[in-house]
Write a structure and sequence with these properties.
Elements: E1 34-39, E2 42-50, E3 53-57, H1 58-61, E4 67-70, E5 76-85, E6 90-95, E7 105-106, E8 116-121, E9 129-138, E10 156-158, E11 170-173, E12 178-189, E13 192-201, H2 202-208
Parallel strand pairs: 7-12
Antiparallel strand pairs: 1-2, 1-4, 2-3, 3-6, 4-5, 5-6, 8-9, 8-11, 9-10, 10-13, 11-12, 12-13
Length: about 210
């Protein structure tokens, strides 16, 4: 069963994915660029960055033959996985009939300790939930990537809680729809679950996409 976030408990790896006028405004009740990535046996989250391209976590799309994307208005779109990068845990999806979907801006600049962030995603049976936090730390964690292909290449620690289904969901700046990374895991240890999570930063996403 892969209802995906990446809350990476050893015994259970149940799965944890701006504007149409090309401007970026603050978060409102208007449609969000955040999407739900739906597979045969679970779901993750992602973010539309324009022209039908959706970024999500690599372990969300791993070995998936059939995939669809649900936008924040409730419309479902057929989609295909273009590629995934195991070391970075990043995947790119292409959505059919994307016209009218809101888009986010992918910021290739580095985040800083203390930066305020906002996470959007689809935890468990809840769709398009929002949580807030800050950037807490940089550096590798020593965690095995959820696709079992080695350690995550780059992770940033956030003081925000993650839940199954939020994997691949965007980490925005606090007030708008500028993508600072994608969520890939919560903090789980033998001593319990802690209110921290991990993102692949936008600098790494831009690197694997050839933007830097």
């Amino acid at each position: 069963m892969r209802t995906l976030i990446a809350i990476a408990a050893a015994a259970l790896l149940a799965g944890c994915a701006v504007n149409v006028d090309n401007t970026t405004t603050g978060a409102t009740n208007a449609p969000s660029p955040t999407v739900k990535v739906i597979m045969d046996a679970g779901h993750g989250s992602g973010v539309h960055i324009g022209n039908g391209y959706v970024i999500t976590a690599g372990h969300v799309t791993e070995n998936q033959k059939t995939i669809s994307v649900k936008d924040s208005t409730g419309k479902e779109h057929k989609a295909e996985v273009l590629w995934l990068n195991h070391a970075s845990d990043v995947s790119l999806i292409r959505v059919d009939d994307w016209h009218g979907m809101r888009k986010a801006n992918l910021d290739c600049d580095a985040t800083k300790i203390g930066d305020a962030i906002r996470i959007e995603g689809n935890p468990n049976a809840v769709e398009f939930a929002v949580s807030w936090g800050r950037v807490s730390a940089f550096g590798k964690t020593g965690f095995e990537n959820l696709d079992n292909n080695g350690l995550w290449r780059v992770l940033v620690t956030l003081d925000a809680t993650a839940a199954p289904g939020v994997s691949g969901g965007p980490v925005y700046d606090a007030d708008g729809y500028t993508v600072r990374g994608i969520l890939v895991s919560g903090m789980v240890t033998p001593r319990g679950v802690f209110p921290y999570s991990y993102m692949v930063p936008s600098t790494e996403i831009c690197r694997v996409m050839g933007r830097v």
